[in-house]
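ok here's DUF2141 domain-containing protein, seq below lol
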Amino acid sequence: MVAPVALLALAATGTAAAGELRATVRNVKPNQGKVMVALFDSAEAQAAKRPRAGYFVAALGMELQVVFPDLPPGRYGLIAFQDLDNNGELATGLFGIPAEPHGFSRSARGSFGPPGFDDYAVAVGASGVATTEIKLVE
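and the structure came out like this:
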């Protein structure tokens, strides 16, 4: 039994400067397309549509979880949408208003447009797990 514990301790030291961000995406329409979750590390990256990482996950149930491991300490924001028409892009209507379910980490909401990065950013430390929730709305 001593050997497995020692191996776990050695493995943990290799990722001491990395944290993890877990998000629960709620209000998913089951069995309709995929849910895209994009991770941004700054307002500039979000504005340039340059995510650090992302997932496309089958929308099998009313909620799902995504995990972003091995993140350096910092602030990260998540943007999600459910791609109901399976075209790989967020459908928009008049004036660019999203026409598919979408949401932000911390379940942030904007007044007249999307929330600012500071409103949906989540702090991730050097180790441990940060959690957030994204509620998809239409």
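fwiw The longest strand covers residues 74-83. kinda neat tbh
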